Amino acid sequence: MLRLGNRAAAVAFRSENKTLGNIDLQSIPSRFNFALLLAQNETERLIAEQCNRQGVSIERSTELIAFSQPEAASHIEAEKYVKAVLRRPDGRMEELEAAYLISAEGSHSLVRNTLNLEFKGKALEQAYALADLHIDGEIPEDALSIFATEQGFLGLFPMGKRRFRIIADRSRAPRSRRWRSRFSRNAKAL
């Protein structure tokens, strides 16, 4: 990842053509004092390759339907004490036993609900637009650029070779033709 990713050494905050502030990530006392930006497909490829080297296969389109944690009769049985029911992509159900169950489903997860675990965060009702684009212009490729506007924020994250990930807050953006025109003018000015 370090070899393939683009390193950003700073974060620049801007609004109305003014710099609000900068953060120098290189001042962090660490050998990893940068933001590493790597395309999602590259990240997934690297993770899949590492899993494959360790004999682990990634199974996509497989859904956790139910799980239980039966009482272990002995210490040896406690090694595999989570039972799970999975639905395969073809609709077939599969039962398995595992030592661990790791859930990364978010606030509405089956695991969280089954265990009656409270979601301590808060749901964000914002709408975002995300795109990976090649951009020419005077945008630094070694810094994250965050722009604040009346309509929300726009973030430009350099992926390398003039490719940028753009994330824009759309939750307060008016849907009018006038706003689209103003956004286009601002984007061209970048």
Question: Overview of this structure, please?
Answer:
By secondary structure, the protein is an alpha+beta fold. It contains 4 helices and 11 strands. The mean pLDDT is 85.
Distance between the termini: 29 Å
Q: What's the CATH first level of the largest domain?
A: Alpha Beta
N-to-C series of helices and strands: EEEEHEHEEHEEEEH
How many whole angstroms does the radius of gyration measure? 23 Å
What is the spatial order of strands in the main beta sheet? 3-2-9-10-11-8
Give me the count of strands: 11
**Structural domain tally:** 2
The CATH topology assignment of the largest domain is D-Amino Acid Oxidase, Chain A, domain 2
**Helix tally?**
4
The low-confidence parts are none
Strand content: 35-45%
What labels describe this entry?
190 residues, alpha+beta, D-Amino Acid Oxidase, Chain A, domain 2, 4 helices, elongated
